[in-house]
TrEMBL record:
Keywords: Metal-binding, Transferase, Zinc. It comes from the Bacteria. The lineage of its organism: Bacteria, Bacillati, Actinomycetota, Actinomycetes, Kitasatosporales. This is Uncharacterized conserved protein, DUF849 family. InterPro entries: Aldolase_TIM, BKACE. Its cofactor is Zn(2+). One of its GO terms (molecular function) is 3-keto-5-aminohexanoate cleavage activity. The keyword Repeat does not apply. The keyword Iron does not apply. It comes from Streptacidiphilus jiangxiensis.
Length: 359
């Protein structure tokens, strides 16, 4: 992304989109006071997040036994109710579905579901606006950056086997998965929301765009949770922002008490933010913080800087919900990227307006 001298002025920045993740699939009820269990509680969590200022909802579903649901019927039911309860929210299904172990048994593994099951998210009815998608298989050790105090008293902190399951987890997202998944999402008019952590992953997405495999808006999360994903070094965040195309939409995601400071940096730099009990349970050290309180905190920071908060309808425009492009050339142009090299063309590529060979 290119920053002009006036790019830090809040009146020149997009209005802030706050993405809320209030369903905490790695936690169990009781780990936080706002973990929803019943379907009514799932819906109320969405309403509360929207009323606090969030306009994108990151969705997981929980069974009454406390574990994450793997039943598509549960997702369909929640989607239908959310369309009625929060019609202006961008509804984003978490593409992991549920990576939590199905039981608390010793040796249980925290595993992402099979490719075939995850592909079913493209068939949900009502369909979501977005499904998150990971690119390239990697370790996903979500506890690596946790302090002991972060999980004290939680199911993860009290159960060594559960802790080990999350420590040893891998995210499976190789080409066999993402090529088919992108095809199915696009065929059903569902936007892919890319969950990325490294420049290598970003470069893979660029190659998919340049080859015409993906032809749509580029909506990204920078996932700074460690353990195979990005860490918390500000220089890495800045470099990732620098490398993101000008026409992309970027949200910054972190974990535990780093969520607020990373979010503050994101707000100042004109990016967007994600908060919620899926990522963080804390405010000040030792003080619990609900998802709604986290939304209110970052909304206050943004308003203090003079940057407005997007409405639901404005968030849909910022995310370009419902847009798709004809081919690689149009996608590159819409994202502000230089065109592909034509046969025999030498030198660095320019955007068409500055390409003398087209005159």
């Amino acid at each position: 992304m290119h920053f002009h001298d006036d790019s830090l002025y809040p009146e020149n920045q997009e209005k802030l989109v706050i993405q809320a993740a209030p369903y905490g699939p790695e936690w169990l009820p009781g780990d936080a006071e706002d973990i929803p269990l019943t379907m009514d509680e799932h819906v109320q969590a969405a309403v509360d997040c929207y009323n606090a200022g969030a306009t994108v909802l990151h969705i997981h579903v929980r069974e009454l036994d406390g574990h994450g649901s793997k039943r598509m019927s549960m997702f369909n039911e929640l989607m239908a109710r959310l369309r009625q309860a929060v019609p202006d929210m961008v509804l984003q299904i978490g593409g992991s579905i549920s990576f939590a172990p199905e039981s608390d048994d010793e040796g249980a593994e925290a595993k992402w579901l099979s490719y075939d099951t995850r592909h079913l998210l493209a068939e949900l009815d009502p369909k979501p606006d977005q499904v998150t998608i990971a690119i390239n298989t990697s370790q996903m050790n979500i506890v690596e950056l946790f302090d002991d105090e972060d999980i004290e008293g939680t199911s993860v902190g009290k159960n060594p086997a559960l802790y080990k399951a999350y420590r040893d987890m891998y995210l499976e997202a190789g080409p066999d998965f993402y090529l088919e998944h992108l095809k199915r999402l696009q065929a059903n008019g569902i936007q892919a929301h890319f969950q990325l952590a490294t420049l290598a992953q970003l470069e893979t997405v660029e190659r998919l765009i340049r080859k015409g495999v993906y032809t749509g808006p580029l909506t990204l999360n920078y996932v700074a949770i460690g353990g195979g994903f990005a860490g918390r070094h500000p220089a890495d965040l800045i470099e990732f922002i620098r490398r993101v195309p000008d026409g992309a939409t970027l949200t910054i995601e972190a974990s535990m008490r780093a969520v607020a400071p990373m979010g503050a940096v994101a707000i100042a730099l004109g990016q967007h933010v994600r908060v919620g009990n899926e990522d963080n349970l804390w405010g000040r050290k030792g003080e619990r913080m609900t998802t709604v309180q986290q939304i209110e905190q970052l909304a206050k920071i943004s308003e203090g800087l003079g940057r407005d908060i997007a409405t639901g309808r404005e968030a849909r425009e910022i995310y370009h919900i419902g847009e798709y492009y004809a081919d690689a050339d149009e996608t590159l142009a819409r994202l502000g990227m230089v065109p592909n090299r034509r046969p025999g063309q030498r030198g660095f590529m320019l955007r068409p307006e500055g390409d003398r060979s087209l005159v």
